[in-house]
Every structure is written in C-alpha cells, then in structure tokens.
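Pasting two entries for a bug report.
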Amino acid sequence: MAVSRVLVSGALAAAGVAAVRSAGILGDERVVSSGRRLGRNLRLARVGVKGSGRFAVTKAKKTFASAERKEALDLEFQIRTAEDVTAELGNMKGALMKLGQMASYVDVGLPPHVSETLASLQSDAPPMSGDLAAETIERELGKPVDQLFQEWDPIPIASASIGQVHRAITLDDRAVAVKVQYPGVAEAVSSDLQNADLLFGALGGMFPGLDTGPVVEELKLRLAEELDYENEAKNQRYFASFFDRHPFMHVPQVVDHLSTARILTSDLATGSSFDEVLTWSEEEKNLTAETIFRFSFGAIYRLHAFNGDPHPGNYLFQPGGKVTFLDFGLVKRFTPSETQLFQDLIIAMVIENDIGKFRRFVEDADLLSKNAPFTDAEVEDYFSFYYRYVMNNGPVTIDKEYAAGGVAQIFDSNGPQGELLKQLNVPPSFVILQRITLGLMGILAQLEATRNWRGIAEELWPFVDRAPTTPTGEAIEAWRRERGQSGLGL
C-alpha cells in the first residue's frame, strides 16, 4: 500500500535513516483494554534488591486478589490461535507496527496527521488470550502454568507488536514479569523480512547517496534478533551484571529456568511511567534525563554496546534520578574500530574543532563521498547539529525546538542542506548509532532537560575521563570504586 510505504520511509528517516525502532515486546508498554487504567498499579516492587523481595511478593498477592474483580477483556479482539497472529500481524503489518512504534516518539516536528497515524500503529496489536498465552508457556517450558507458578495472571499488563507481558509469582515466592511471544509471530515477521528490500526500497529514492544494501541487511539482522528471547536474555544478563547495585540504573535479573527462545521471565520491577515523570519538578526531570543520558551514551564506550531502544515505555522511574531499564531485544555490540571512529569524530568536531580532519574521517567512513561538491563549512553546518549540545562547557537545555531541528535535518531535503542530505550514506555501524541521537533527544526534549552535557559527556568519554561534574557523577564514582572497577563506571 502506497500510504504504508510512505509512512515506513518517513519513520526510518525520522529516526536517522537507519535508526529503526524494532520495538520488541515492551516497546509500547501500553496496558491493554480495561486493564489500561490499572497498569501502573500492576507494576510491583522490584525483586533482586536485598530487602525488597518480601514486599514485592506481598504486593503481588494483593494485586492478584483484586484481579478477579477486573472488568473482563473484550474477548472479540483477543488473539486466540497462531492463525490469528498471521491474520493480525502478517502481510507486513508486524514490521509496520514496529516501525510505527519507533517513529511515534521521535515525531517532534512532524505534521499532526503523520504523528497520529504512527501512534495508531503502536496499539494495533490486540492482546493474546490468557489461554493461548498459557498454552504457549506450557509448550515452551513443558509444564502448565499452575505447575510453574504459585500464581499467574491471565490478563496481560503490556501488549505490543510481537507479544505481551504477564505478572506471576514463582514457586519460590519471586514476583516476575513473563514475556510471552505470540505463537507464529516469528514466522510472520520472518516473512516480512524476506520482503524487506521492497519495504525499505523507497529510501533509495529519498536519499540517492544511500547504499541501501548494507542498511537493509543491518535492519533485518536487528529485527530478527528481537524475535529470539534467548538473545535478549543474554543481553539483559550482560547489562544487569554490569549495573549490579548501581545507585541510579537498574536492570531486572533474568529467571533462567523460566526462559526460552519464546518466553522471557525477569524480576518484576516497579516505578512511575514517563507521563508521570513529565509532571515532576524541573530538578527531578533533570535528574531523570541525566541518568538516561549516562546510560545511553556511556554504554557505548564502557560496555562497547548500546541498548538501541531509547523509548519511554521501556523505562520505569523513581525520584532522585533512579531508572529501571527494560527490553534488551535490540542491542548493538560495537567493535573496537567502530568505537574508535566515534571517538575520532568527537575529538575532531568537539574537542579540536578541526573540520578538515572531521571531514576526512567522514569520508573514510563512507558517510560522504570524497568527491562530494561541498565546502568544509557546509559539512560543518550539517554535522555540527548532532554535537551542538556538547560543543560548549555549560548548561544547555534540550527542548522540542532542538529535537524538531533533528527531524528537519533528516526530512528537509528541500532545505538549505538538502543537496548534502541527499548524498549522505549510512554505514552499517551507524545504523543504531543514528538512532541514539534523535531517539534520545526526543525523550530529553519532552523533559526539557537542562544540564552541562559537555561536562557529563567528558566523564563518559574514556579519552577524556573527566572527574565527576554532578552529584550523580560523584555517587557513580563511589559505586565504581567500591566495585574496584575505576574507569568502568557510567
């Protein structure tokens, strides 16, 4: 359908050409049907932090008791069979929904009708019936849910493009979130990906300089990875281990014996939603923004990995800048040569302001051809936008105007930088990195976050390794000293 192709092309462009949001199970964190109003109350106290486990179990059991009084889900729209999955999510719809979920939170500056259409793609997936979810768990884990869990809530607390999440209490009194993949969705999305060349082919027309082959392959790889919960569990363990007892960043522990390639069980976390955070004080919003910034950018250099999903629905918030990070289906591991390139570009643009050197790095990375007919000033004018918030050592507010400018950088091929834009290429290593810039900026813009981002960034950049510049940084420095891993903190 022509409209769908335009939306997908626009969605990709909005995220930095190749910054595809393959949303994953918790990509939207929307609570389905009548459970929507109760969604916040169904997030239980995190388990895994010493001293909080018993409280979480108590809260869980109280919530289960009230589950019987919930208004029943509208059965007419439940997915009940694998055939329903194909009908609901097949014919490119599954992929389109994932792209819509990606684009809807970086839509600052897009026309209202485009934003509304993209947002509608988020909620297009009906919930899977409780019986079908239980059947899927039994098929994957070999036992019925009543033998695997003390208590199991058949009503999902979140539903997105390829599956949904249920609350449960394990046999050893552990409150958990059980992510259940729709049966048959892997086949449906795999079919979509076989046609990805057509789906993403419009990018070649929008950006003549783009070599779509490597981009499409990278996107297909990242999207396919999200279907493999064993891969997601591996990623989540990696991050959870690193952030163990971190003062501001929390990643729930995976429950290994209750997880498979189609089921992912983790400790159940609690916290406020992003919408609630938007009502908090300016200082609380700034603390939240700083934690998200440190997590997103610091992991590139400290873990050589990026959780490529800066989506507000994948965060749970507590006052004081504490954030729980969910959904590790889309993680990009960077090679030493890739992180070295990112470092070289930052040094040339931000620290040395040597545009000639920056241009040579850009050309060597195949971002721009060596014979492109643009002056160094034009190259600087275009690329400096992505570094503007760290160019000066002082407070900078990231607002909606700034985020909208990022969208214009990608969309406005008729603008003053349109000709350069048309000749840009996106190497595979930049597919996820591009996503950071606009995805994260979109979130920080909604928070209207103000910080000395240059100072914080210099704490994260290992080639600077600056001393802490904020109270958050000081607390993190104490945490890493306690772990005996100086130089490895975020």
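Entry 2 (this is the one that rendered wrong in the viewer):
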Amino acid sequence: MKLFSYLAAAVLALLPLCSQAGVIYQWQATNDETPYGITLELEFDEATVQAGTLEYYFEHFNDERPPAGLLNLRYTFPGPYGVTWSLQDGGFESMLGYIDMRLSFEPDGFLRGSIYLNDSETHLYMESTGRAFTIVDANSDYEMVDAGCPWHKPEPCGGATGYIVRDGAELPGEVPEPATLALFGAGLLAAAGLRRKAVR
C-alpha cells in the first residue's frame, strides 16, 4: 500500500511539469540558399495550437513578460557570434526586441504565415506561400559570414526556403525509413497468410 502512495505522490509532483510541456515546431530548410545553417525552434502551448491561429506581438523593454501562446523560441545562426534567443529567460538578452507573428496551425503539422524577430542587433523575417516559408531577410550587426550573410552586404540576405513543421510530422516527399518499410512489408505478408488460411 505504501508503494502505491509513493507512486501516486510522484505522479502528482510531475503533473505541473507535464502541463508546461508545449508543442514544438522546427525550421527544415529545403534548398541551399542564404542564410545557411540557421535553426529556428518555436514552442507553443497546446491551447494555441488547438485554436488554429496566433497573432502575437511583443515589444520587449526592461522586464516585461511576453504574452501567452508562445512558450519559447530559439534562433541561432552558424559562426562564433551566433545568437540564441530564449523567451524562457524572460526575453532578449539585449533587453530590446520585437516579435511579430501571424500564424495558422495546419492539421497536418505545418505552420503558415509570417514571422518577424528583431533583438535590435539581429533580425529574421520570413513568410509563407502555402506551407513553404521563404526567408526574406536575415542579418545581424555581428558577422553572419558562415551563414553567407556579411553585415555589409547591400541587398537583403534571404532566399532559403523550407517548412516550419511540428515534431514528428512528415515532410512532403519524405521517404519512409527502412525499418518502417520492413514493418509494413511484414504486415502485408501476415495479411496475405491469414487470407490464404481463410480461403482453405
């Protein structure tokens, strides 16, 4: 009986942690255009994803807390000055910044819409046509040479296309893993065997 009580107490203690877990979407590039090698991860609360749309505007000055809906975002670019923004740390390290997102959540796990991020030193702007996003401009006061975007480049640094997709969702044209194909094949063989037995 004591063991059951301990297990119940452990489950109750973990419930608040589970309730904080969000739904994660990640940038997946589909071409080899600038900026190269960036990462973008967005974490939303479940209620926002279920609602289907999000209009999110946040100006970060001093100690203001971001509004509900977006739990966290992480953005990095390659190189020694690659920045990481994390809303879980209260906002932007520079204490200045803007987030402007107009998004819709598709049932198949894809995002559509537009995203603008700017921490007064680094910015990223991307928008979608259908499910595919294009990076319109990405740059930084720091060098983004490893991403193909030096700060003195006269034209906007962009062109990379890709998807922002929920963890676990399949990308268009994705080839199933060999293990998945093997399992599918085994299932077909088993079904054929059962049918042969039924015919006899």
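Dev reply: Rendering is fixed now. As a check, the viewer should reflect this: The longest helix spans residues 178-199.
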